[in-house]
Design a protein that fits this description.
Layout lengths: L2 H18 L5 H9 L11 H4 L5 E4 L2 E3 L2 H10 L7 E5 L5 H7 L4 E6 L2 H13 L5 E5 L12 E6 L8 H6 E12 L4 E8 L6 E8 L12
Parallel strand pairs: 3-4, 3-6, 4-5, 6-7
Antiparallel strand pairs: 1-2, 7-8, 8-9
Helix pairs in contact: 1-2
Length: 216
C-alpha cells in the first residue's frame, strides 16, 4: 500500500463525508484527513482501509466506520482544551482522532491485548496525549475524573451511573444506548451546577454491546 494510495483514499473518504453533510465541523474533518486509519488495523488495501465501513480487528471487535468516529467526535463539541474519557479503546483509532481535538484522552479498554497493543501503537505514532488503561468501562476511570467530555464506543442498555458521576459540570457525554437490535446515539449535557442532565437523541446507530469486567 503506497503512501500516495493512502493519502488519496483518505482524501476521497473525507470528501465524501463532507459532501454527505453528516459531519460539518471543519476541525473534525481535518483530523480525519490526517489520522492514518490504515495503521490501526490490518487492511488488505488502501481502498479497504478507507472504506466508510466498520472492519474486524479480532476478538469479536471492530474498528468503527470513519463516519461514526467523526459523528461522535463532532457531537462531543470539542474545542481543544478538554480532558476526555473514552470507553472502548479497541485499536486506538478513535483515541487518536480525539487526541487531535482535545487536550488529553484517557481511554479505557476491557481487553488487555487490545489495550497493550493500542498503547504501543499510539505512542509509536506520536499521540503522546493519550493514556490507555485496562479497566471495566462501566466503572469509567475514577482517578482521572471529572472529565469535560466522555465518549462511549460500545453500547450499554443505559448510560452507566459511574460515567455520569465522572462527567464534570458543563460536560458532554456521547454514547450509543440500546440492545442488539435497536440503539440510539445519545448526548448527555450536565448543567454548570452539576445537578441536571439533559438528554438529546442524535439518531439510530449500531455498536457492539458494552460488556462488564476485564479480560486477558
Amino acid at each position: 500500500m503506497s503512501q500516495l494510495d493512502q493519502d488519496d483514499r483518505r482524501r476521497e473518504l473525507v470528501d465524501m463525508l463532507t459532501a454527505s453533510r453528516w459531519i460539518t465541523d471543519p476541525r473534525v474533518l481535518q483530523v480525519l484527513r490526517e489520522v492514518p486509519r490504515h495503521l490501526f488495523f490490518e487492511a488488505a488495501s488502501a481502498e479497504d482501509a478507507y472504506a466508510d465501513k466498520p472492519r474486524p480487528i479480532g476478538l469479536g471487535q471492530t474498528i468503527s466506520q470513519p463516519a461514526v468516529v467523526g459523528a461522535i467526535s463532532q457531537a462531543l463539541l470539542l474545542n481543544g482544551t478538554e480532558r476526555v474519557l473514552e470507553i472502548g479503546t479497541g485499536s486506538g483509532y478513535h483515541a487518536a482522532v480525539l487526541s487531535r481535538l482535545s487536550a488529553h484522552v484517557d481511554s479505557v479498554e476491557r481487553l488487555r491485548p487490545f489495550a497493550e497493543a493500542a498503547r504501543i501503537r499510539l505512542a509509536t505514532l506520536g499521540y503522546a496525549n493519550v493514556s490507555v488503561h485496562v479497566g471495566d468501562g462501566y466503572e469509567g476511570w475514577m482517578s482521572g475524573a471529572p472529565y469535560d467530555r466522555i465518549a462511549v464506543t460500545a453500547a450499554p442498555t443505559a448510560v452507566p451511573d459511574a460515567l455520569i458521576a465522572q462527567l464534570a459540570p458543563g460536560g458532554v457525554l456521547v454514547a450509543p444506548v440500546g440492545d442488539l437490535e435497536t440503539q440510539r446515539l445519545v448526548r448527555l449535557r450536565k448543567d454548570a451546577q452539576g445537578g441536571t442532565v439533559r438528554v438529546e437523541d442524535l439518531g439510530a446507530i449500531l455498536f457492539v454491546p458494552m460488556l462488564r469486567g476485564t479480560a486477558s
